[in-house]
Amino acid sequence: MQYDPIKRRLGVFFNTSPALRKLFYRLLDLLFLRAWYVRRELKRWAAMQHNGASVLDAGAGFGQYVYFMSTLNPNWNILAVDVKDEQVADCNAFFKTIGKHAVRFQTADLTRFREPNTFDLALSVDVMEHILDDVQVFKNLYDSLKPGGLLIISTPSDKGGSDTHHDHDDHDSEAHGFIDEHVRDGYNIIDIQEKLKAAGFSKVDAKYSYGTAGSLAWRLSMKYPIQLLGISQLFFIVLPFYYVVAYPIAFVLNYIDTISTHDSGTGLIVKAWK
């Protein structure tokens, strides 16, 4: 059972009003540990910026990180790109409705997208594991940043970040894992640093996320509930009661993960400077 189709269905439900859409963003921020890491890095970067920064969200998805960045500084000019036309149209309509006029979404293929020396910051969250020609994307993002610009990447590691096998690792069973939409199982921490440096980045800092505590939180807050929904959507009825018990535990585990240094983990947070 894969979580992306269910996440899309939830997105449709929460898109029925701007208030529900904002609630959906907040739920994503709370449930996904990667959002904790990404938001922290964005806050650190924002604290050092003046008004008028130009920002690229490379692979914007539902637009939750665009929304967060627009709250950090309303004077930032934010361009968000995604390969899906319908998602781009939906996000443009939502951000126009809530009056975020410095935000613009457009359809683009990151293997071809390139705007030389344009952006102070580029963000890529859970995107690179979906793109086969990642080297070309890294080159395009490097070219699109201004000198001194920063690229922030969140992506699964090769330590099980794509959850490609079942819990018992039965290689005779169905070849699909919990997430089967990735073109690679995850990045080796050395490999992604070398690829970014080869693309031209002068400095690269990569750290593991989703250590022991974070991986357990992921199972409690996301994997197990969505597996239940994969059995029957009637489990929507019991989800609120499940989260009353499970989420406080997951919240503490997420916090522990963010304040810890990990020798290994199923996720990576990578920063690269031009």
Question: What would you note in describing this structure?
Answer:
This protein has 274 residues and is of the alpha/beta class. It has one domain: Rossmann fold. Helix content is 45%, strand content 18%. The chain is built from 9 helices and 7 strands. The protein has helices spanning 3-14, 18-31, 33-46, 64-72, 85-97, 134-144, 189-198, 212-231, 239-258; strands at 54-58, 77-82, 103-107, 119-125, 145-156, 203-209, 267-273. Strands 3-2-1-4-5-7-6 form a 7-stranded mixed sheet, sandwiched between helices. The termini are far apart.
CATH class: Alpha Beta
Average pLDDT across residues?
88
CATH architecture: 3-Layer(aba) Sandwich
Query: Spatial order of the strands in the main sheet?
Result: 3-2-1-4-5-7-6
Structural class: alpha/beta
Number of strands: 7
SSE order, as H and E?
HHHEHEHEEHEHEHHE
Shape: globular
Task: Please outline the helices and strands.
Layout: H1 3-14, H2 18-31, H3 33-46, E1 54-58, H4 64-72, E2 77-82, H5 85-97, E3 103-107, E4 119-125, H6 134-144, E5 145-156, H7 189-198, E6 203-209, H8 212-231, H9 239-258, E7 267-273
Parallel strand pairs: 1-2, 1-4, 2-3, 4-5
Antiparallel strand pairs: 5-7, 6-7
Helix pairs in contact: 1-2, 2-3, 3-4, 8-9
What are its keywords?
9 helices; alpha/beta; globular; seven-stranded mixed sheet; 18% strand; Rossmann fold; 274 residues; 7 strands
Short description:
The protein has 274 residues and is of the alpha/beta class. It has helices spanning 3-14, 18-31, 33-46, 64-72, 85-97, 134-144, 189-198, 212-231, 239-258; strands at residues 54-58, 77-82, 103-107, 119-125, 145-156, 203-209, 267-273. Helix content is 45%, strand content 18%.
